[in-house]
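Board notes (copied after class):
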Amino acid sequence: MSKLDDSSGVRALDALDSLPLRERQVLELVYGLHEATATQIQQGLDVELSNSAIRAMLTRLEEKGVLRHRIDGQRYLYQAVVPKREVRVSVLKRLVGTFFDNSPVSAASALLGMSGKLSSDELDQLEAMIAKAREEGR
């Protein structure tokens, strides 16, 4: 899946808003690893949970449409339904809307303010993005 207009992708994005903390942490681990087993998730969490508790959580995340799995031999490998880049766009839109009155300029200004001193290379990248946005009429 690569488009958010796919019904399972929209359902997954909607489900992300209401995930409890621990389920969100599991999802973040899966995004970080791209694909993960229950054991990898268990080892990556900051609290001790039994393997059966992890598996129950993974089942709930699949039922919510956030994760899916494939079988590799005797292992279940879990991966996110919606690619990370699409979740990133959705989360940023919500963040900019909620905290910056739908102003990307205000959000960018806040990000620049908290980033400290930017390197010459980073400034060049920003200038290139601004030039591209101007060319595209954005």
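Comment from the instructor: The helical segments are 7-17, 21-33, 38-44, 51-63, 84-99, 104-114, 120-135. The first strand starts at residue 67 and ends at 72.
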